[in-house]
Amino acid sequence: MKINLFFMKSRVAKRIFYIFIICVLLPIGILAFISLHQLSEDQKEKSFQKLHQVSKNIGMSVIEGLSFIQSEMHVVALSNNSGLQTPMLELLNQHIDGKHPRLLGLTLFEGQKAIKTFVGKPCPYPKVTASDLQYLSTGKGVLNIQILNENSYSMFMIVGNNISPDRNRLIVGKVNIEYLWEIARASLPSMTHVYIRTSAGTSLFNTGPLSQVALKEIENKMKTSAVGRLEWNDDSGTHFASQWSAFLKGSFYADDWKIIVTESKGDAFAAVNRASKIIALIFIVSVLVVLFLSSVQIRRNLEPLTRLKEGTQRVSQGDFKSRIRVRSGDEFEELAMSFNTMSEKIGRHFSNLSEMGQMITKILTSLDREKIIQAVLLNARNVVSCDSVSLTLIDLQETKVALTFLKNGGYGDTALVVKRPTIFQLSELRKLGEARENLIVESGEEFDGLLSTMKDRGCVRFVLLPIIIQNQLSGVLTLGYMEQLEQMREDCIKARQIADHLASAFANAGLMEELDQLNWGALTALARTVDAKSSWTAGHSERVTNLSLWIGHEIGMTSEELVILQRGALLHDIGKIGIPGCILDKPSRLTTDEYTLFKEHPEKGALILEPIKAYCKVIPLVAQHHEWFNGQGYPKGLSGDGICMGARILAVADVYDALLSDRPYRKGWDKDSVIDHIHEKAGLHFDPEVVRAFMKICNVSYSDTLTYTSITDRNSIPMKEISATYKLAAKIRK
Ligand SMILES: [Fe+2]
């Protein structure tokens, strides 16, 4: 099974893994260490106890062997005194049951003279001291060791044979040391070694590969050891040793023997080493098991975390639609579900905020009441969860009636907005004026006039949000619900914000309308001032403006071009302010000088408008409206496309109105003559394209009495209607 440890790069994974290690391996490690230590101590103690017991056993066995020899030699001595035959003599010098003979020789000495050898080779006379003889006289034996050289010695057992002050008869037996050490070896367990020496330091027996240096060290340490145990080292490692003292003084009148048994630590700790290997194996297996289990657990726990992390990153990047799938059946699954719910709510809020922002931007950036109303009705339900929305404008001072706007089918920008007159009771208006935040109304209560349409659509609960402009009730934003919803409270907060922004937008739109009216009023006043300078030109500028707008619309001018055309037409003769009234009202033809002065009015008009930056695009219309298409006009003799389109339109409209009007020096023409004249002058005085549009209007006008009459009857068209004409043209253009 392949274990993928890539996830171990995670800090959480490492932390969990370390916890596993600490919680599992550390106790095992400590337990193993303590167990091994305790086992080692026990094993060491057991080893010392075993070595002590072995050394004691060897010592006892050797003493027993010596005692046996001594007893047999006493028997020989007694037999010899009594002159009896000693049948067991043969046994002393023979191999019995594969064992070595106990004595290599047995000799009777008279003084220092050998007088009889019982078995084996004759023994040399040993060094016997006076104290030995005294001890022998008690009937006990003496063990005598004679050093031959550094590596060899002889051991004799001496017993007395009728010892008296004047006669020393001794029986001396040369002890076969192989017999003794065979006894020692028999008591020696495997892997252990024995070293036997006298208390005087004479080395007697050594089974192990113990060097003299090692033996010396053992001897030195034994001297300082109170319990007769020690540890010593050599090239092969550490060794344990235990010593037992064999007291020979009482039985053999000889120095005590030290029986030292040693064992290598490696042999003594064989069990410990085996246990160590088993524990190491257990440790390794534990590591593998921990590694496997921890990796499984960590992956199981980390996978949901990774998914949560990825989900969080997606949310932070604005992806609120993706969901996290965790099927762990534990808290991680619950966390993932909570995360998904949270993500969905955040997404909804984010979408609402976005929609709200867009709608408020549309509301605040629009200066047109209709666009503001459309923006609210078409987008409000993306922000609030109501079933129907209406917006009511209240202007009791002007229209005496309120208008309610509702969305009527369709979606998005294609949805239709309908308006219906609405009648309020005075108590209802008072209630709305006093409610600064909102009113919640149930079906069947007040506001029947306002809510009737929504009720027809199935709404039973309503939230009314008054729109207050300059402390006056100016409108109502109404939300309709078909059932009770939990989101109503949240909707009220959002709708209140919308209503507040609506108040600002309507206030701005009102200001713009006032400014627009002021602007057009000022322009119209200026145009009428110019026309009033001569009694023959009353209403001329406004009529020219009206006709110019129709021609401009027919040609396909944009709304911006139409606004410039409208302004240029109203002000086209403003330069006449600088022309003396006597010239303008002269009943006869003008002289050359007078005409020259008159022809200056287009340039004078341009000079008058020059300081107004907003009218810079109007100046060419004023300056060029007397230029001819063929270049024979004034003041500069421009021709063709050198004359701006607005000026070419003005030229037609100006001549049309001038020829229809009476002048001091002639009567006004009939309209057919004027139309014919304009048609004839196409390509000369007038732009053929403009004439074509003019003629189209005239032809259409003949079949559309109402529209044509307003032009041909030269009725003065009020400014409001001119503005409406412009707006109509702009709408159609769009
Ligand atoms: Fe003019």
Structure report:
The protein has 734 residues and is of the alpha+beta class. The chain folds into 3 domains: 229 residues, no CATH class; 154 residues, Beta-Lactamase (2-Layer Sandwich); 201 residues, Hypothetical protein af1432 (Orthogonal Bundle). α9 packs antiparallel against α10. The C terminus is likely disordered.
Question: What keyword list fits this structure?
Answer:
five-stranded antiparallel β-sheet; 734 residues; binds fe (ii) ion; 3 domains; disordered C terminus; Beta-Lactamase; alpha+beta
Summarize the SSE layout with pairings.
Blueprint: H1 11-82, H2 89-92, E1 103-110, E2 113-120, H3 130-136, E3 142-147, E4 153-160, E5 169-175, H4 177-186, E6 192-198, E7 203-206, H5 212-224, E8 229-234, E9 237-246, H6 249-252, E10 257-264, H7 265-268, H8 270-316, H9 331-365, H10 369-383, E11 388-393, E12 402-407, E13 417-422, H11 426-434, E14 439-442, H12 448-456, E15 461-469, E16 472-481, H13 488-532, H14 540-555, H15 559-571, H16 581-584, H17 592-598, H18 601-609, H19 619-624, H20 645-660, H21 671-680, H22 688-703, H23 705-712, H24 719-733
Fe (ii) ion is lined by residues 572-573, 625-626, 654.
In short:
By secondary structure, the protein is α+β, with helices and mostly antiparallel strands.
Q: Mind telling me the C-alpha Rg?
A: 68 Å
Which ligands are bound? fe (ii) ion
The average pLDDT value, as a whole number, equals 82
Can you count the beta strands? 16
Going by helix content, strand content and strand pairing, the class is alpha+beta
Taking the sheet with the most strands, its summary is: 6 strands, antiparallel
Strand order of the largest sheet: 13-12-11-16-15-14
| N- to C-terminal distance | 72 Å
Shape: rod-shaped
Strand content: 15-25%
Helix content: 40-55%
Please, how many helices? Answer: 24
Low-confidence stretches: 700-734
> How many distinct folded domains?
3
